[in-house]
Each structure stands twice: as structure tokens, then as C-alpha cells.
Amino acid sequence: MSNHGDATLPGHWGPPYLLYLGNPADDLAIKTARGVAYWRPEWCVGQYRHRDCKPTLGLPDISMAQAKAKGANTMMIGTANAGGMMAPEIIADTIAALDAGLNVVAGLHQKLRENPEIVAAARRNGRVLFDARDPAPGIPVGNGRPRAGRRLLTVGTDCSVGKMYTTLALERAMRQRGCAADFRATGQTGIFIAGSGVPIDAVVADFISGGAEWISPARSDDGWDLIEGQGSLFHPSYAGVSLGLLHGAQPDALVLCHEPTRRHMRGLPGYPVPELKRCLEANLVAARLTNPAVKAVGVALNTSSLSAPEALATCRQISDLLQLPCQDPVIMGVESIVDNLLACFAN
Amino acid sequence: MSNHGDATLPGHWGPPYLLYLGNPADDLAIKTARGVAYWRPEWCVGQYRHRDCKPTLGLPDISMAQAKAKGANTMMIGTANAGGMMAPEIIADTIAALDAGLNVVAGLHQKLRENPEIVAAARRNGRVLFDARDPAPGIPVGNGRPRAGRRLLTVGTDCSVGKMYTTLALERAMRQRGCAADFRATGQTGIFIAGSGVPIDAVVADFISGGAEWISPARSDDGWDLIEGQGSLFHPSYAGVSLGLLHGAQPDALVLCHEPTRRHMRGLPGYPVPELKRCLEANLVAARLTNPAVKAVGVALNTSSLSAPEALATCRQISDLLQLPCQDPVIMGVESIVDNLLACFAN
């Protein structure tokens, strides 16, 4: 794999991080920062907020200079907004961070490197800029050839139903059991957490499946690549990304992710969330094009809008319906899903 | 629609064209030039070939200066190669064309505007460069909202089975009957022929369905948008593009395109061409997400590898199998497909 965007290289972007929140519209706008703070708390020295910012990660509020003094290497712009554009205040704050001696990383569609003032400030301070939505150069067109190794992909009924959390929870649980298992990031938050990956929604359309092949190359150590899914085959805005990722991943195993209280597809009131059985079957049918032996091994629910008894009852009901283990990775863990995965691929 | 890439604007790229062949590897490498010469012969003043070039369009071989003297406005680089890169000789010839006073257009993944020598030559001569694979800025994310007007999309069992030819043949036949019908281009050759469009395989992955919505906006004149399909839901390299295009197009009508002698998916010996019935059904199922009323109205075959009696027999066989009119648009026209289309949407 290329070193592009590899946070583990010396002198490159990477932790420790100051998490920049600025002045976000709502709690959803800081989901990138929240993901990094949740999965890599040891990498986060503090958060930077404007005075009127209500959302918080529960980290100490510190200035850029304080962050630098506490050992931060990089300020991560952990906010997102519709369209991915940079507000003027984010540009000013980015320049201030560079002047304070921090590198800056962001995951917006609008790139840091496309703003001349930001580029000048980085150059003047000898700092690194990294756009997580900038795919590495040289990703090839997908070739569909069967490759060695085992791969699991999370797929969803909709966007934002917990595919990244589920995939990371599987990595943690499998490693705790001594399995070789590696999270493969396909979105900006995942890339910040993993330190590398492909922003699959930002590659040129012809290269979606190629990008998926590129992040999960052949492996021969009997371990698993756990590939972060994106979107949904049933989301009319993004299904092309989901299908290309499904084909390129050549998954042996699928885990279906779902938010049981979601009434309609994210952002599209006219589109109901697909029925679970139909959604899983459509993913299996499409996946068989590049891996005829693909199996569903579990269902992961985001039950954060349910009471504990409701969450348990819903998991049981869906488990009965699909004849698969069903858990909320954040509240219940993923042990029964891992049990089933390992049982299905025991040979 | 934006004026980006609109060949009908004064002082912009556009015909008359000198078609540049250079020194292509084989006949397939000049398919862009061949498409333009076939559909818009009145726009083509000649072809430019190197001495050792075997493929020909049957146009007069002329120099760049001769082309300019004959009224050519633009040299079109009508060759393609795997990966879409520019060979050194193409760079040199492009500069020579600019120095001869011609604008230059190309449809390669590697952009004219990314080569500093080419950009300098264009500036020095006051000439225009146009990269057909450069999507217009500002294409939005798809919104999936039902929109007015009627749309037909060509879909395929594979890449390069005649989707563009079929769509253009439908435009010609429908216009001859007095129907309002407009070809909507989604690939570089189609963009050169139509004078505008969206290179759907070159947009950022998140914007595939948005690009399809953008080129076929709501219309209220009772006419048809005829949208050029791309790839195939069954091609593991490009299916994401095909699905996003299918969702964004919201087609009322599908025409399935097929090459009956193709043994495996283009470039992928391990992947057989899908069975016609299964392929059509998969396209209809996926299309229903954004247009539940979608109907298949015909099948278009590329029978160029068959004898005339074989071609007729194959059309009859497939017509019986799918209960749809089946024709080779180039040899037989598309009248029976248009008959069925108009009968299906007669109200």
C-alpha cells in the first residue's frame, strides 16, 4: 500500500490531536471529532471551541498554543457540514493553528490545499496539510480478480447507521481473542482513526471498486480485513458508492447495520428505510458477483434512541427474523457476531 | 443547465473538427473519433494520422494547417488508451495544433489543462482547451425527488455494447416522427457529439446520481430525455457508475443493449456476460427505487460480428425470450422499439 496519508510516518500528520469543533450547527456536525475521541481517546489532548459552541466531547477546552505545549502534533478539523465547504472562520482558525506550530488535517470536500492562504501559512510554518477526502494518486480500476485473505464488509439499510462503529468494534473484539484483524477505513473519520485508508466517496466514479481492492489487498496470514461500509444500496443519492465498494471488497462475510427508529432514508423524506430482509438479500445478491461464497454473519443495531428493554427486545426480534446474531456494538458489544463469524469460517 | 463545456457558445470549443488519430494501438482505440465521424459527419473536415497509422475513418488525411485553412475550429483527440494517459507524441501534436490556430479537446482521464506546456501553448495562441472528462463544477448530490418529464435510459449487459449508438439512433428516429427527444450525453464521445453533457464516470463518486439528475432536469414539453447509459450492473469494475446513473436518471423506460457474441465481460475473462433476462430484471428492480413505474421497452443488439441471417435470427430469438422488440440500431434501425415506447406511454 502507498504511504499516502499514512499517519504513522515521521514528520507526517497524525496524533496527538487537538480536536477542532469551532462553532458547529449541532451535535451531528461534530460526528468526525466524536468518532476519533471515542475510538482513540489516548490520541486527543483537548478540544478547541468558540465561545458560543454548545456541542462538547467532554475533553478539556484548550487554545492552540496550549495544545502545542501539551504535545499536540496536529489540529483535526472534526466538523462537517452539508456540501463540505469551509466557512471563513474555519479558514482563519486553520491559519492560526498553523501559526501556532500545528499540522492541520480535515475531511471536507473542499480541500485545505486549495486555499492559497492556508497553503501559504503551512509553507511559512513548515507544517503539513492533509485532506482526508483526497484519494491517494494511482488507485487503479477494479479488476475483480479473486484474491487471498478473508474480508468482512459492513453494509447498511441507510447512511449513518453505525457501520464504522460496528467495524471498529469487530476489530477490537477479534484482536482481544487473538485473531489478526485490521480495520480498513473508507471514510474520513475512519481514516483519522486508522491513520490510512481510501475516502471511497471522493474517488473518481470509475475507481470505486478499484479503491476497495486497493485498501484490502491479498493477505496470507489467515487474518481478516474488516472493511468499513458506506451508504446503502437503497439510498438514491449514494448507492453507486455502496455497490462499487461491495464489488471491490469481495467480502466473505457481511454484517448488516441498521437504526431501528429511522423512518426514512437520511435526508430524503420520500424514501422509506428498506425492509431488513430485502436489504440483506439485495446485498448478498450483488456481492455474489465477485464472491459467490459470501455469507451474512450478523446484524448490528444502533439502539441509542431506545430504552434498554426496547433495545434487547428489538435485537431478539431481528435475530429471529434473519436467523443471525443481532447486537448493539456500543451497548452490548459484538461477541455473538464474532462467535458466528468464526464458526462460519472455522476450517 | 450550466454553459460549462457547451460547444454551441461563440469562441468556445466545438465543430468543425479535425479528428486526431495519431498512432493508435488498434481500431478500438479510435472509437471516440469513429463515433463523432459516424454521427456528425458534417462536422468533420478531415483526420490527422501519423505515417504508420493503420486505422482510418475514411476522411481526408490533412495537416493541422490544412485543417485550419478548411475552416476547422478544433482538433479533437479522438483516441483512448487504457488508463487514459497522454503519450509524449500526443502532447507534442497538441502543442502543434494550438500553434496552428486550432482549439483542442480531449476525453482522456489525464487532462490537457494539467500539462503546463499545453496550457502555455494555448495561452500563447489564445486558444481554448476542453477536457470532456472534466465534470462541470457545482454538480449537486442526488436528491431522488420525482421530477417532471419522461426519460429513457439505455442499460447494458456489458461495457461497449452499443448504448451510445442506440441512444442516438432513438433520438434520430423519434425526431423524424416529430417527437421532442434529446440525447443526454454521459461519456466523452457522447459529449463531443451532443456538445454538452456530464462525463459520469469522471465525477466524484458521491455525485454520480446527482450528475444524472443534472443532465436530465425536469421538462414539461411532453418530450423525452434519452440518456446514454454507461457500463453494466454486472461489470465488477464499473457497476457503481451504472447504478448511480440508473437511480439519478429516474427512467420511465429502459432499453437493454447487448453484444450477442461477447463471451466474457470486457477486460475480465473470469466474468461471463450475464443472462439477458436476469440482467434486465436486475436493472428494473434497481430502477424502481427512484421510479416504481419503470418499464422495459426494447432490446438493442450490436450484431456486427454476425452474418445478416444470424443477426435476424438472434433478434427474433431474444424478442421471443423477453417479449420485447429487438433490433440492431445500426443495421435495422430502431423503429419497432420506438413504436413500443410510444405505445407504452401513449396517454
TrEMBL record, chains A, B:
Gene3D superfamilies to which the protein is assigned, alphabetical: NAD(P)-binding Rossmann-like Domain, P-loop containing nucleotide triphosphate hydrolases
Residues covered by the D-glutamate N-acetyltransferase-like C-terminal domain: 141-338
Domain (D-glutamate N-acetyltransferase-like N-terminal): residue spans on this chain: 57-135
Source organism of the structure: Rhodanobacter glycinis
The protein's name: DUF1611 domain-containing protein
Entries under NCBIfam families matching the protein: DgcN (NF041892)
